[in-house]
Design goal:
604 residues; alpha/beta; 8-stranded antiparallel beta sheet; 7-stranded antiparallel beta sheet; binds fructose -6-phosphate
């Protein structure tokens, strides 16, 4: 995910763009850049690796100015963070400049075609192909060119495009990534998000997919892909600047929970092209006799879920290890072991150490990482990237979901490659995975009832999460989420373990038990556990496919859309995230930055 902004008007575009980029930095911050149609008839472009402050320092040494410009803050997907890979990208004729947010899935094919025509590329990015293609198509009409370019691109994009031959016109188009148009008395704006323009205007138009905006100093016009004019009336934004940075959500965590259907979709899509596809296809399942997943915190919990999925589908032995333990235990691994490192940041010190230990022992390492250019992404032999964009809330939500879905996909591919599954079964499970984003949307549409229920739960002294089999695995994550943001004591137990000790913790009135019931053959067993805690005075929230629930007011029930039990964690976790979020929100806590925690744990 990146942030883009553009301005055309009476004022100097550069300070407007830099201020706007500050409001978009949450979308990515590994490099930034700005380009203006300079007074000398050329583009003036300044691009800088690192945070926006580094770009500001460059701009103060080399001031540039112009009445039209575009800017970008990057979260690298293709090509490492570097000055060259930063946006804006300018074609090799120095005629067209582009900023892009999104991923161009067919960039390799387009690049090859253009290279065959003698066009030289400067960067490793997918985005440069847009500038080069636009110059290739350009014959005096930028709007026409943008239509041709948009028709040639596959993937997602929000684009801001300038052409030196039409120096008063800024063109924008989008598909599957956000883009707003701001209109003001002194000029017009494009931006990835409203906060970037709020200082100048609260009048915005929202572009729909495959709609084009043509902005000049005097106003904005809109067109469809057939070049027919569209009419749009600007809407008035009522947010204040602070809340708007979270896209209108009170906390980043809620925003990120709500983004999950898109994140799931993007991550599932990511294995059909580009780097993720290549990595999955390159892994030879038969080469490994053992699989180890090692990680910390929520990423470890994703590994526990994956253990159940891999073992059930692949009949392959899987160990899940906390990275802080794995690194010192003299693990029994060999060159026949696949070690999977799961990490949002790719910078967690214990997970990095576990990776280095595994490599030193000859194991093959696979990273599952969200941050391109991070240590694990660089050092693991191969790496799969979660397509979740930057995650700002300390408590992970959307990246956890993206990790799960990549692990499911890997398990299905391994099972098929190992001959443990027919092609038909593989197709069936792949279709079930593809259906998860829609089911996630269904759960999110029931947010009000989860919020209402959570508001009744802030007084509990302890909240336990129980489940069996894969429900136990995801109960670990439900419990972690709750305790880290609500500060309510919480533990997760396998249902069968209750009677071996934990049940003594159940206290009348003070205890809530969240029970998960998604495992068909174990439904009777988990319901017996529910009876056991209910008869000792606990209240119960039951989550899952268990229509026979609710025999008394003590048991509340949240049903999930129908889903194969192995993939049910992707749905039950969303309910538990929302539950935890609303418990913490009702307690008035600092949800995005819980006490004592940090987003990236780079120390041991
Ligand atoms: C919990 C959470 C942490 C991280 C853990 C690992 O919500 O976010 O438990 O999962 O610190 O971090 P990464 O994934 O960056 O290695």
């Amino acid at each position: 995910m990146c942030g883009i902004i553009g301005y055309v008007g009476e004022e100097n575009a550069v300070p407007i763009i830099v201020e706007g980029l500050k409001k978009l930095e949450y979308r990515g911050y590994d490099s930034a850049g700005v380009a203006v149609c300079g007074q000398n008839g050329f583009f003036d472009v300044i691009k800088q690796k690192g945070r926006l402050t580094a770009l500001e320092a460059r701009l103060s040494e080399n001031p540039i100015a112009g009445n039209m410009g575009i800017g970008h803050t990057r979260w690298a997907t293709h090509g490492e963070p570097s000055d060259t890979n930063s946006h804006p990208h300018v074609g090799s004729q120095n005629k067209i400049a582009v900023v892009h947010n999104g991923i161009i899935e067919n960039y390799r094919q387009l690049k090859e075609r253009l290279e065959q025509k003698g066009i030289a590329f400067a960067s490793q990015t997918d985005s440069e192909v847009i500038a080069q293609l636009a110059e290739y198509y350009y014959s005096g009409d930028l709007l026409d060119t943008v239509i041709k370019v948009a028709n040639a691109l596959e993937g997602s994009y929000a684009l801001g495009i300038m052409c030196l031959d039409e120096p008063d016109m800024l063109v924008a188009v989008k598909k599957d990534n956000p883009l707003i148009i701001g209109v003001s008395g002194h000029g017009q704006f494009i931006a990835s998000d409203v906060p970037a323009v709020l200082k100048h205007t609260n009048k915005v138009c929202y572009l729909n997919d495959k709609e084009i905006a043509v902005l000049t100093k005097g106003g904005a016009r809109f067109f469809n892909m057939d070049r027919e004019p569209l009419s749009k009336t600007p809407e008035t934004v009522t947010w204040d600047i602070d809340s708007a940075e979270k896209g209108g959500f009170e906390h980043f965590m809620l925003k990120e929970i709500m983004e999950q259907p898109k994140v799931l979709r993007d991550t599932i899509q990511s294995v059909h092209s580009g780097g993720n596809k290549e990595v999955i296809e390159s892994l030879e399942a038969a080469r490994f006799d053992k699989l180890v997943i090692t990680a910390c915190g929520s990423a470890y919990n994703a590994g526990v879920v994956a253990k159940y999925v891999f073992e059930r589908l692949c009949r392959l032995s899987v160990e899940v290890e906390l990275a802080s333990e794995f690194r010192y235990k003299d693990a029994i691994i060999s060159d026949k072991t696949l070690v999977i490192l799961v990490s949002q940041s790719g910078e967690t010190a214990d997970t990095i150490a576990a990776m280095r230990e595994a490599k030193a022992k000859g194991a093959f390492t696979l990273g599952i990482v969200n941050v391109v250019g991070s240590t694990i992404a660089k050092e693991a032999e191969v790496c799969l990237f979660t397509a979740a964009g930057p995650e700002i809330a300390v408590a992970t939500t959307k990246v956890f979901s993206a990790q799960l879905v990549l692990l499911y996909i890997l398990a299905v591919r391994f099972a098929a490659a190992l001959g443990k599954m027919t092609e038909e079964a593989e197709r069936g499970l792949s279709a079930e995975i593809a259906a998860l984003p829609g089911k996630a949307e269904e759960i999110l549409s029931r947010i009000d009832s989860i919020q209402k229920y959570a508001s009744t739960c802030i007084g509990y002294k302890s909240i336990f999460f129980i489940g069996r089999n894969i429900d136990y695995a995801i109960a670990l994550e439900g419990s972690l989420k709750l305790k880290e943001i609500s500060y309510i004591h919480s533990e997760a137990y396998a249902g069968g373990e209750l009677k071996h000790g934990p049940i003594s913790l159940v206290e009348e009135e003070d205890t809530l038990v969240v029970a998960l019931s998604n495992c068909g053959r174990l439904r009777g067993k988990i319901m017996s556990n529910v009876e056991q805690v209910v008869s000792r005075g606990a209240k119960v929230l039951l989550i899952g496919s268990c229509q026979d629930a609710g025999q008394s007011g003590i048991i509340s029930y949240i049903g999930l859309p129908e889903v194969p039990e192995l993939f049910s964690p992707s749905l039950s976790v969303i309910v538990m995230q929302l539950f935890s979020y609303y418990v913490a929100a009702n307690k008035g806590l600092d949800i995005d930055k819980p006490r004592n925690l940090a987003k990236s744990v780079t120390v041991e």
